[in-house]
């Protein structure tokens, strides 16, 4: 048993630990307990970061713990977007944290060169056509 799990809560009382459940998170083997959610099992192991922001790479973890915010999304047995705070831990689950993703829509051009209005776009388009040689 690890030291991050609350075994005797001042309001809820003593935790009754029943059956151990093995699972894997990002390639490492861990043990949770029957009745744990994925989030509670990971939190008990001292794991706070469940994913990173898809674009910026900043760490994300448990925020609301009631399924509203979607910050705790993980991939479970190959299915992405599973909310760790709502999903009960099952034996031999393979859980993967969310990784930073390539953004195909992110502009690599200088933002100052892009037109801000349709009129600027037309002007830029006409300017490019004027520069093209006649064939």
Walk me through this protein's architecture.
The mean pLDDT is 83. The chain has a domain at 8-96: 2Fe-2S iron-sulphur cluster binding domain, sarcosine oxidase, alpha subunit, N-terminal domain (Ubiquitin-like (UB roll), Roll). With 135 residues, it is α+β, with helices and mostly antiparallel strands. It is elongated, with a radius of gyration of 24 Å. The chain is built from two helices and nine strands, in the order E-E-E-E-H-E-E-E-E-E-H. The protein has helices at 38-44, 118-131; strands at 8-9, 13-14, 20-25, 28-33, 51-52, 59-60, 73-76, 79-83, 93-96. The strands form three sheets. A five-stranded mixed beta sheet has the order 4-3-9-7-8, covered by helices on one side. 16% of the residues lie in helices and 24% in strands. A hairpin with a 2-residue loop joins strand 7 and strand 8. Its EC number is 1.5.3.1. InterPro entries: 2Fe-2S-bd_N, 2Fe-2S_ferredoxin-like_sf, 2Fe-2S_ferredoxin-type. It comes from Anoxybacillus andreesenii. This is Sarcosine oxidase subunit alpha. Pfam families: Fer2_4.
């Amino acid at each position: 048993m690890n030291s991050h799990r609350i075994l005797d809560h001042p309001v809820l009382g003593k935790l009754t630990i029943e059956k151990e459940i093995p699972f894997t998170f990002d390639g490492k083997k861990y043990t949770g307990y029957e009745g744990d959610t994925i989030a509670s099992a990971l939190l008990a192991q001292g794991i706070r970061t469940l994913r990173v922001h898809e674009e910026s790479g900043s760490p994300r973890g448990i925020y609301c713990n009631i399924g509203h915010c979607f910050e705790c999304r993980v991939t479970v047995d190959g299915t992405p977007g599973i909310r760790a705070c709502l999903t009960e831990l099952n034996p031999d689950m393979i859980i993967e944290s969310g990784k930073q993703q390539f953004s195909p829509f992110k502009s690599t051009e200088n933002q100052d060169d892009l037109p801000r209005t349709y009129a600027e776009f037309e002007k830029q388009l006409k300017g490019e056509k004027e520069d093209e040689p006649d064939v």
